């Protein structure tokens, strides 16, 4: 997984900013100040935390060996996707879909005015 391309993919989303509230080695992506993704490393493995529908999160953990409950997050609403190179790892296209879903889940909880200002640019 090319982390730099993944960062650029997230930063291309409307009203998105990169922040480092947990230190220089943890990248937090926010839309209008609300986190939708976190890139970090644990035990030498890069991972991304994403907001996820609880039912979909369970299904993803059943299908992909590199998807777990969100590390240091609400385990019901967040997942961690570890960037492993094995046969059952999550493909890049699926990770991008999960990023899109996380972004939209966060936006869906915003005011109608903020939602409209963001969704006009998608």
UniProtKB/TrEMBL annotation:
<dbReference type="InterPro" id="IPR058532">
    <property type="entry name" value="YjbR/MT2646/Rv2570-like"/>
</dbReference>
<dbReference type="InterPro" id="IPR038056">
    <property type="entry name" value="YjbR-like_sf"/>
</dbReference>
<dbReference type="Pfam" id="PF04237">
    <property type="entry name" value="YjbR"/>
</dbReference>
<dbReference type="InterPro" id="IPR007351">
    <property type="entry name" value="YjbR"/>
</dbReference>
<protein>
    <recommendedName>
        <fullName>MmcQ/YjbR family DNA-binding protein</fullName>
    </recommendedName>
</protein>
């Amino acid at each position: 997984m090319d982390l730099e391309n993944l960062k650029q993919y997230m930063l291309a989303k409307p009203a998105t900013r990169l922040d480092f509230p947990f230190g220089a080695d943890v990248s937090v992506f926010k839309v209008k100040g609300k986190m939708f993704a976190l890139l970090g490393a644990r035990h030498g493995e890069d991972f991304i935390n994403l907001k996820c529908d609880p039912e979909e999160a369970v299904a993803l953990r059943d299908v992909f060996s590199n998807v777990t409950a969100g590390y240091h997050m609400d385990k019901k609403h967040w997942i961690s996707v570890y960037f492993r190179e094995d046969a059952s790892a999550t493909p890049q296209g699926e990770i991008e879909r999960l990023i899109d879903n996380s972004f939209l889940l966060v936006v869906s909880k915003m005011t109608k005015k903020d939602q409209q200002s963001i969704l006009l640019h998608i």
